[in-house]
Amino acid sequence: MSKVLIADDEAHIREILRVYFHKEGFDVVEAEDGQQALLMVEKEEPNLVLLDIMMPIMDGIAACEEIRRRYDIPIIMLTAKDEDEDRILGLEKGADDYITKPFNPREVVARVRAVLRRSGGFTKLVDKRKINYEGLSIDRERMEVHAGGRLVTFTTKEFELLYFLASMPGKVYSRNQLLESIWGYTYFGDTRTVDTHIKRIRQKLAIPEDSTWDIETVWGVGYKFELKERPSV
Question: How much is the pLDDT for 125?
Fold first, then answer.
């Protein structure tokens, strides 16, 4: 059973969502402000957080930033504001999706299911801060990549894309999935953006032919980070 944390200072909003989520088989925990939301994430380890922006003590933007710093967990922002600036700020701070009030509770449940389908649920970042393969080290905390014994400089999106693929070796992602996961649910872009970033990543890594890992193109679908045996001599 998936567990959802609803963080909103309006009790009637939490009640409405709680009823709908229970009806759909979800477990629900609640928080009244951003600070309480942080405590509930630590205590309850939910699969996803619904986070209102306008909350007392600690607002949703600050809470989102802090949760994202500590955990790898899907976050959907809830707000009464229908402004691009707030939407963009929430996504920049790490939100996976954005829903504007008033909303249809059934749509909220559907959006939660969609985000959960493409996420790994709750993970403390201490478990995924570093990825190490032969000849490749990715440090998420420092945002550093070492390949072949040298420090490789990446843009933020290039780093996020490489980390995302390398954290799930063997899993194939379509270009649209990568756009949603790295650039955000509401990103309106061309799938060629992914191709361009992959090309730059490959060029910067300068992957040797005998490498035990590679970023492979899955023709007609997308990309995957593949682990392979070193060719025999």
Answer: 45
